[in-house]
Amino acid sequence: MSSDAELIGRSLRGDTDAFVEVISRHETVIGNYLARRVGRQAAEDVLGDVWVAAYESRASYDRSTGAALRHRYRRRSSRAVRRVVRTP
Question: In its UniProt record, which GO terms are filed under biological process (predicted)?
């Protein structure tokens, strides 16, 4: 099985399926985190935003750290939650 870092590298080289695999590895944990914070319905919308932002910023990911990817997505999710909570 490829590491997240290897998948990100493949994604940067044009392998779109590689990023889909990264999403499938982390979507349940991140989705559950979001659902606890903003409810299931809003979490689905926010989760999409998180993955778009993650895809767009994947080149800045330090692939030498490997295991930190879930933490990075969690931080990105927290920022998205703050935006949702602030919206009237």
Answer: DNA-templated transcription initiation
Among 83, 13, 10, CA closest to 53:
83
Amino acid letter for position 70: R
Structural domain boundaries enclosing 50: 4-86
* DSSP secondary structure, 10-23, as one string: HHHTT-HHHHHHHH
CA separation, residue 69 to residues 7, 66, 86 (Å): 11, 6, 26
Tell me the chain's radius of gyration from C-alpha atoms: 13
Give the pLDDT score at 58: 85
* Start-to-end CA span in the chain (Å): 44
| Interval 32-80: pLDDT, tens | 988 988 899 888 888 888 888 889 888 888 777 655 566 666 777 777 7
Count of structural domains, the chain? 1
CATH code for the domain of 24: 1.10.1740.10
